[in-house]
Amino acid sequence: MTAPKPKTSKRQIEEWIQGYSFLAPALLVIFIFFILSILFAIYLTFNNVNLIAQTYEWNDLRNFRNLLTDKQLIRALQNTAFFALVVVPAQTVIALIMAYVLANREVKGKRFFRLIYFLPTLTSSAALTLIFMFIFNQNGPINQLLMSLHFIDSPINFINDTNWTLKVIMVMNIWSTVPYFMTIYLASLVDLPHSLYEAAEIDGANAFEKLRYITIPYLRPITTYVVLTGIIGTFQMFDQAYIFSGGTGGPVNSTLTVSLLIYQYAFGQNHQMGYAAVLAILLAVIIFIVTRIAEKLNGGNGIENT
């Protein structure tokens, strides 16, 4: 015989009602701005949508078939992948090294340096982009410095050269995101037991060996978070490319990213909101797959696995 299920008391029912009453506002917001938005985006993928004329025309799977012939999408995916492959490892490694140095060295004015390093994170992305456009202008400080050092004979057109524009955006992105990740690493290094370093010193370990065999394994879960956050951020990069190119993705699509391409189809001259919704879903799927792969490759519980 099976034991009878315990009856739900009146008090338990009241607690459930109270609990869900407190959750109701948040659940309502999630439902309206998240679930309904996703469902509406999926509906748009099966339509030709013109926001200006407010027209919806059912077209079955035509928007999905257009993915196979969209040359701009291929270029945008290439630029976005290249951007992520360079920026994510660079910002992760630099942030870890800076945090390790600040946490383990007695540097005068350490708090001041932490504040200075963190300032780029507090500045708006649009403002930083305009500053970098000035710095890398043909008459800007970078060209003047390179010419004064006789590294170049004439100014380099960093802003409008297909070989340089995306690389300048990469430098700017790395410079502005490293302080945030450095702060995360610093907060984690505070909890690292110093007894591990002391034991390693007794065994004759040098600074590099302590970093390799103690610090890096201990910070593995934090590194996973930093990498995943970096991947999501780089795949969603939009504002820097938009400002640098004026929304065109130029020169010659060299700064065209998937997010910028979605904007062009949704709000550009073609007003193809349905196809833009397909690209948005494709980008979400790519980010999910890439982050899952990165999570598996960087998996583990830290120092216990070494």
From TrEMBL:
Any one Gene Ontology cellular component term annotated for this protein: plasma membrane
Regions that span the bilayer: 20-46, 81-103, 115-136, 164-187, 218-235, 275-294
Record key words, sorted: Cell membrane, Membrane, Transmembrane, Transmembrane helix, Transport
Main localization category: membrane
InterPro entries assigned to the protein according to its UniProt record, in alphabetical order: ABC_transporter_permease (IPR051393), MetI-like (IPR000515), MetI-like_sf (IPR035906)
Topology with respect to the bilayer: Multi-pass membrane protein
All residue ranges annotated as the ABC transmembrane type-1 domain in the record: 77-294
Keyword Transport annotated: yes
Keyword NAD: no
GO biological process terms held by the UniProt record: transmembrane transport
Pfam families: BPD_transp_1
Cellular localisation: Cell membrane
CDD domains (UniProt xref): TM_PBP2
Family from the record: Belongs to the binding-protein-dependent transport system permease family.
Listed name of the protein: Sugar ABC transporter permease
Organism: Streptococcus varani
Source taxonomy: Bacteria, Bacillati, Bacillota, Bacilli, Lactobacillales
